[in-house]
Design a protein that fits this description.
Blueprint lengths: L2 H17 L9 H7 L3 E4 L9 E6 L2 E6 L6 H16 L3 H7 L3 E4 L9 H14 L2 H9 L5 H11 L3 H11 L8
Parallel strand pairs: 1-3
Antiparallel strand pairs: 2-3, 2-4
Helix pairs in contact: 1-5, 3-5, 7-8
Length: about 180
């Protein structure tokens, strides 16, 4: 995996949040999708499977997300991840090579699929921009309590908040 592409993906997510007027937590991926005329729909909770999917067609793009896991942070990260496929250069073309629909699964279960990892980095940048995370960490408790506080303020998954804390913290930290 090219570290430059991952950094670029995260920075693109940060830029998209900024371009849509977000300069504080939380960043709302649903409103970003709406501003870009991307239809977002929930799947019924009795339909487990993919966390989210994006479909490209002549009318534009649409995103579905799972409600099997009732967690706002998980849902926001899923929608932001799918937006990563929409905004990241090369992703729509790669997806359309194998049809117009692409599904993503959570939990690092997709192996080494570059576009999945890039979409995760895009989502983390969009929901947890570096400057906001660093500012929040300076004013919060070190450790799990601070990570949980960041996840709550950013309305993102605890996993994403933990990873971004380890990337942005002004103090040494390890996430296990």
């Amino acid at each position: 995996m090219n570290k430059f592409r991952l950094k670029m993906s995260r920075q693109l997510g940060e830029q998209i949040a900024k371009d849509h007027g977000f300069d504080s937590f939380p960043i709302d991926p649903f409103s970003i999708a709406e501003e870009n005329e991307i239809l977002v729909q929930a799947k019924p909770p009795d339909q487990p499977g993919a966390s989210g999917s994006i479909v490209f067609n002549n009318d534009g793009a649409g995103i579905t997300y799972s409600t099997f896991i009732q967690n706002e942070g998980f849902i926001n990260f899923t929608v932001a991840h799918e937006l990563g496929h929409y905004f990241t250069p090369g992703h729509p073309e790669e997806i359309c090579k194998s049809g117009s629909k692409h599904s993503s699964k959570a939990g690092f279960s997709q192996g080494d699929k570059s576009i999945e990892i890039e979409a995760d980095h895009f989502a983390s940048g969009m929901l947890l921009p570096t400057h906001l995370v660093k500012s929040e960490l300076l004013n919060s408790t070190i450790g799990l309590e601070g990570i949980l506080s960041l996840a709550e303020k950013a309305k993102c998954s605890v996993t994403a908040a933990a990873i971004r804390t380890s990337e942005c913290a002004p103090y040494p930290i390890a996430i296990v």
